[in-house]
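Subject: Alcohol dehydrogenase structure
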Amino acid sequence: MKSLQVSNDPQVETKMVEAAKPILGENEVLVQVDYSGINYKDALATQPNTGVLRSYPLTPGIDLSGVVIESNDSDFPIGTPVLATGYGLGVSRNGGFSEFQAVPTSWLIKRPATLSAKQAMIFGTAGFTAALAVDALEAHGLDAGSRVLVTGATGGVGSVALQFLKQIGCKEIIALTRKTNQSDYLKALGATQILSPEELFPEKNRPLNKQLFDFVVDTVGGETLAKLLPFVQYGGSLALCGNAGGIKLNTTVLPFILRGVNLLGIDSVDASMEKRLTLWNKMATKWQVSDSIQVQEVTLEEVLSVVNKLLEGTHVGRTIVRIGGQ
């Protein structure tokens, strides 16, 4: 079978290889992979000293969708359409950038009938993360009357989050992006206003600023998050689900103790199966992605060209990898 593999002998290198089909362990199935998705984490996995991969050599790809073709679990018989995101896929064991993959059934979701293998990967980890973030904000009061800011709005998580917020009917959906040339695209996704960091942030950041946003979906972290906290409405919430802008947070306690702001951590890797099933069914029925989102489809051999765009910060929308799908 064809796989994309990252090795470190003697230096980190990513290349196509011909590998033997995996041997199944207990409660594992062999999935014929139709589609995978390319995420920022997958891009980092191809680079040295990022800590994403737990061992070498390893096939990256934290997403996959396909069909079970061999099974050691009666709950997942041959022919079952499945999808998987997160857990150790593409991190501690071989992932989705392969024609076939052995996956523990405790990591698998039986794909909803209304969701094709391709649609599942248009969502992928990015869509599931966006769903977790919006779901967490709804639990803290987000509704159709809310003013919501989305950072990194042209990326995979940001793009899908805009669509979910549009379907909820939020009255103000503000996209924060450096790619102001993508304004028309962001408005098609659901943004009612486009802001650049230069337009929003003052030269000198204050502990508390004008209360502009009720809720925030932050895919960036770092300095961007620190600068956003002072703008959040009393009792508002931020869902933090990314670190492209850095892992350090230099801020004050004032937004939390004077305005009761909530900072909600979003983890898509080890989210409970109960939450996964709830949100994937919601994405398959209620929170669907429209044709407005930019979706690029590539082959395994083309993955590295997309990885470079992700690392350079020039990538827009979602890129999926067609492996066995039509």
